[in-house]
Amino acid sequence: MGESSSGTNSTSTGADAHVQRLRRRRRILLAAIGLLVVAVIVAALLPTLLQRSHRNAGATGALKEAAFSIQSGIQRWAKRHNGLYPRASQVNAVDLQVDSWPLNPYLEEPMTQGKGPGFFAYRLGPSRRSFTLILYDEDGIAVTTKSGP
């Protein structure tokens, strides 16, 4: 009886080891499938993320150019008016005599005063000898340019 008992125990141990190997292979296979799914999702989204990053870089450059163009017009206006900066209502292509008024890079329309992506705000200092020009990026975050004392 001792032999048959140890024989059964030996078979049971061999079966347990086989089951453990199968379970380990199954875990490895499931992990590999999970990694494959993640890789496929990343591969599908990568072009979109890269395109958005490129578009944001272009819009950021357009905002910098717009800030320079508007600020230059404001500075030229002040030179013609004894160093006084224009009122907010005068910050436009006609009054500032800006030939090529910048476009809102998100709307592809002439940039106007307001809050939101691609708009700008102009704040005149109390003595009209300083101003703050604020442009808003795609996320509505203020990008500020200051001038004057």
Brief digest:
This protein has helices at residues 2-80, 93-96; strands spanning 120-124, 131-136, 142-147. The chain contains 2 helices and 3 strands; from the N terminus they run ααβββ.
Can you tell me about this structure?
With 149 residues, the chain is mostly helical. It has one domain (2-147). Helix content is 56%, strand content 11%. The protein has two helices and three strands; from the N terminus they run H-H-E-E-E. It has helices at residues 2-80, 93-96, and strands spanning 120-124, 131-136, 142-147. The protein has a three-stranded antiparallel sheet, with helices on one face. Strand 1 and strand 2 (131-136) form a beta hairpin. The chain is rod-shaped, with a radius of gyration of 33 Å. Residues 1-5 have low confidence and may be disordered.
Q: How many domains in all? A: 1
> Percentage of helical residues?
55-70%
Order of strands side by side in the largest beta sheet? Answer: 1-2-3
Q: What structural class is derived from the secondary structure elements? A: mainly alpha
Gyration radius (Cα, Å) is 33 Å
How can the largest sheet be summarized?
3 strands, antiparallel
The low-pLDDT segments are 1-5
Q: Give the mean pLDDT.
A: 82
- SSE string, helix = H, strand = E? HHEEE
CA distance, first residue to last residue: 104 Å
Properties at a glance:
2 helices, single chain, mainly alpha, 149 residues
Topology at a glance:
Blueprint: H1 2-80, H2 93-96, E1 120-124, E2 131-136, E3 142-147
Antiparallel strand pairs: 1-2, 2-3
